[in-house]
Structure formats: structure tokens, C-alpha cells
Known about the structure:
Oligomer: heterodimer
Number of helices of chain A: 7
Amino acid sequence: MLKNTIIGLDKILFDDIPKGSVILVTGAEGTLKSGLVFSMMANFLSANDEHGLYVTLEQNLESHLRNMKSLGIKEEPNLHIFDYRDMRQEWMDSELDLIKTTGEVIDSFKEKYGNLTLFALDSLNALYSISDPGDMRKKIYNFFTHLRDEELTSFLIMESAQSRMSGQFTQLHQVEHFLADGTIELGMIEGKGGVKRYIQILKMRATKHAMEKHQLTIGDSGPNILGPIY
Amino acid sequence: MQNISNLFEFQEENCKKFIDRIIKSNREVFIMSSLVEKQMCGYDLIKEIFSSCDVFLSQGTVYPVLYTLESEGLLHAEYSKGDMRSKKYSLTPKGRKIAEKEIEDFSKALEQVSVLLSR
């Protein structure tokens, strides 16, 4: 369903991503994680009568849209953006169970728009940093189960810098990689021609895909994937 | 005496359970109804519905309704002067018309259900 949403995506994805897959999109800051996911969702929804939900914990709605516009990505009416700014300003973080709340937000949008088929969370790191760490592994397992039960093709964005941290985050990240159906890594490589962004599919269950790193650039209308970067 | 008091408690609990279900599954009507008289933020709305109906609508079920009603042009949102922390919602003229109609239809539906049950 998403194979043709980005120019060049078919260079790395030979089959389509099965509906209801939960995919991690990892990478350091500035590697276009949000732009790639938002662009895939917006392009898919502009051609289909379905709805998507993009939940952002890192930015508010206005700044997220501003960033997307600067990348040439158009706003799509069926792609709903929900930010936690108001909720977090009005309630203490301790009063909010954001994993449970995110599940309820999904259910509310699903109730309103029956054909909600795409979901993105930006980002898992932010969700962890403001969530009660107790029973986190169980909560994450239940969250993944919820996404699958709702048959949502989901993108969970994860800043990879934190995966180098020791302790709980590292363990949690292992759980997510294990639970996810796919992992897309974005990064930067410094070579003779300067710094280049790349995209690499590390894992995609039930889907044939390339293993090589491919160059990721920004075109007039969002991210484009070029040939192998080697 | 103890049994009668238990029965009343049971009836009250059972009644509360139905009210809880009715409000939660029709929260859009209750949210719009709460905004007929005054503008409120999500926090105020949750507190208001809890204090008047003894039903807690969770944050994850209220804020998405506010978002969708605003995007449909039924609610107007603004940050109140001197308090940038809370986004106050009020009904737009279009929203007020729809809210009044929804409240009327919802009340009629409840009456009809009551008549059906008392046959």
C-alpha cells in the first residue's frame, strides 16, 4: 500500500508493506525520520479514501506543519495531526498515562473516521521520557498488540542516539526491534562528496527488500530515494 | 433492612453504569452541551462533566473530540489572555446550531427509549 508513495522507494522495497505492519523508523536527529513518514502517509492518503493519524509528542501542530512545508510536503486533509501540547500544559505529566492515552486517541479517531488505516507516533523516545517506567515492557507489548488489533499500518519513530544509552532504554529498544514487523534506518554518511543521507531497510517481515544503503535526498515535493550509496 | 439497603446500592450502581456508558459513547454531545454556556479548555470540560455527572471522561477521549470539532469548524479555539497554558474552546455559530440540534435529538431519543422500556 505504500510502495509508490515516495519517488525511488521501489528501489529498496520490492513488495508492498503488508497492511497492519508495525514499523520502526530509527535514526539520529536530522536524518528525515518525520519527513519520510509524514510524506509516505500524506502521499498515500491523497490517492486513497482513507484516513491517517500522526501523533506528535515532540512538536506542536503548527511547527510540525511548518517543517513539513519546508521539505515540500503538502498538508493532506485526511492526515490528522494530534499533538499533546494542550493536554500536557493543562495536566501534570504524572496525571497522564501517555501510552494508554495514545491508545484512546487512536480509538477516538477510529470511531470518528471508520477507515483510519495509517498511524504514526513521533516519537517513542518522547513517549518513554514522560511515561512512568513501571511495567514499560508490558505496556509497549500491549501497545503494539493494540496497533495490530486495529489493523493500522504504523510507523513508530525512534531517535537512535538514545539507543546508545545504557540501562532501561537499551533494553526497551531491543524489545521494540523484536516486536516490530519492520525496521527502517535513516542515517548520514560522510564521504568524498560531503555528507549524504541514507535509508536502509534492516527488516521487513513478509516483504522482499534491498539490504543496501540508498541515498535519501529532498526533492521539490519531499524525500526521494536514489541509488545505492556505496 | 440490610438487604433493602444493598438493593438500593445495587440499583444506584447499576444506574451509574448505564449513565457512564451513555455519556462515554455520546461524549461529543455532552462536550458540545457543556460549551453552550461558556468557553472551556479540555481540563475544565473533564472536571465539569465529572462534577455534574460523576463520569470521568479520560484525556485521550476528550482532546481528540475537541480537535475534530475544531477542524470541522464547529469549535473556535484560542489561548486566553494571560494564560497561554490553556486553550479555551467555544462554539462557533455553526457549532451552536449543530449543538442545539444534537441536544434536542439526543433528548428525544432518550425519551423514546424510556417509552419503549416502560411498555
